Each structure stands twice: as C-alpha cells, then as structure tokens.
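Hi support team,

I'm filing this because I wasn't sure whether my run with S-adenosylmethionine finished correctly. The job status page said complete, but I'd like someone to confirm that the output block is well-formed before I use it downstream. Pasting the exact inputs I used:
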Amino acid sequence: MGYYLESDLDIFNFDHQSEIAETNLQPFYHDSVNRIKLYNIDVFSFFHKIPDNCVDLVFADPPYFLSSGGITCRSGEKACVNKGSWDKLRPIQSVHYFNKKWLSEIKRILKPNGTTWVCGTFHNIFSVGYALQELNFKILNNIVWEKQDPPPNLTKKYFTHASEHLLWAAKTKKAKHTFNYQELRDISDEKLIKSVWKDLWTLPSVTKSEKIFGKHPTQKPEKIVKRVILASSNIGDLIFDPFCGSGTTGVVCKKLGRKFVGIDNEIKYLNIAKQRLIATGNNKNTRFFP
Ligand SMILES: C[S@@+](CC[C@H](N)C(=O)[O-])C[C@H]1O[C@@H](n2cnc3c(N)ncnc32)[C@H](O)[C@@H]1O
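And here is everything the job wrote out:
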C-alpha cells in the first residue's frame, strides 16, 4: 500500500539498535532488553511508518471526547470533568471520523489472527462498535468494567456512572484469535474464576501506588490491562498501544514478557510512562491475580 518507507521498517525491530538511528523517528524511550519502545508522535503520523500485518495485539484507550466542562467528584470535592484538550467534546460525526480513521489503520497493521481491544464509555463506544463493524472486524466480546468505587454523581440528575466498556475484536471473521483459557484457569483462584469467565468485570479503579510518578487523568488500572494481555496474547507477542498515556499497557507487557510499542503525542505523559517502566521489575513471571 506504500504507507511506509523502507527505512521505517525497524520501528518494530528490537534486535538491531544501530538501525534505529537511520529512521527519522527516534524512540522517546527504548528498553532493548525487554523490547519496549515509546514514541512521542501523533498517532496518524506514526501509522504511515508501520508495515502491514505485523502486530499481534492492540490495546487502545483512545480519547472518549467527554470533556464538556461539566462537574464530577474527585476526592470528595467538586471538580471539572475535563481531561485535556485532546478529549474535548466534539460533534458525533467528528468522533466517528476519528475512530474509523485510526481503526482502519489498526486493521491494516494487525497480523491475520490479531485482535484489538478498545476502551470507552457511551461517549465514544457506539461509534467504535459501528466503525469496527463497518471495517469488517469480528466483535468477540463487549466487556463491561463495573467500577467498584465510582465517584458519586453530584448533579442529582443522572444515575451514577459506574461502568466502562472494552470491545474486543478480531481482524477478520476468519481469524483464529488467541484466548488463553488454560492459562487464565491456572492462575485464577476459585473465587475469582467466576469473574474471569464473565464479560462483566468488577474491579477497582487505579490505585495510588500506580500513580507515584504523576497523575494521568484517565489512567487505566493495571489489573484490567493484565487480564486483557494474559487472555489474548502470548509471551513474546508484539503489543501496540496507539494512545499509551502513562504507559499502563507497557508496564503490564514488561511484567508479562510481551514486546511493546506505545505512542502518545503528549510528552508529559510519556515522562510518567518512562519512569513507571524503569521502576517495573524485570521478572517476567510476575503474576497479578487476585
Ligand atoms: C485515554 S488516554 C490513555 C490512558 C492510558 N491508557 C493510561 O493508562 O495512562 C488517551 C491518550 O491519548 C493521547 N492522544 C490523544 N490524541 C492523540 C493522538 N492524535 N495521537 C497520539 N496520542 C494521542 C492523549 O495524550 C492521552 O494520553
């Protein structure tokens, strides 16, 4: 398709460090031992550099476009709901244009049996689901994350928002996707196993210890990402996160022995990601349950 230059092919090459200098794009952070790279770039500029059919799994936590100037509750106090200019409320046509554009690139770069996860709330998830279907992905699951500790709704005009969605989709209807049934079984205790097998995951929000290097306004809890990565990828697989923020996906990949490439266009978030990655132990057998 001519989307990328020959010299950019090494973006996902972890083995020849000298070649990286030949690309126009330097990684913001590169851990050659654990095969982890972060890039500071806009997602659409980056896609042009990625070859077709090269990624095993995508975990995407894109902008939900919910920052409308409304109020929420943070640490018991009224606070503005806004996450950043990247999350500003837009007309639904613009949200859908954005989602279809980046998801069509994900379709191209996934290996034939690859899958993608996409997070969202009602603000973006219907558009994401529609785009996935327009692009002939096969939707495998719609996971509902029930937050154990949601902030109360201070407006007294709505039910408390206590859930998010994670859509899981295969590149094509024919794809033989990875689902590590036995591995999930082996690491689950009896109490937890019920929750692992359902598409309703009741889990707490991100813990304070995951924020010691700084706060990202929409950081995902490691527990959720670990369940995703363990279930749908294998050791040594290449995982790509096009909106990696504070690097939660990378931290989990490092713990679980997966290769990782993450990008974000805000350097302040990549600085948090880098510190988190450096602080993460090198023990690839790290387990997370419960
Ligand atoms: C929902 S947050 C991801 C949070 C992440 N999962 C974590 O645990 O920290 C979305 C991220 O996408 C980034 N972003 C938004 N638009 C982008 C774009 N066009 N290209 C690259 N990154 C973008 C934002 O800076 C933000 O950090």
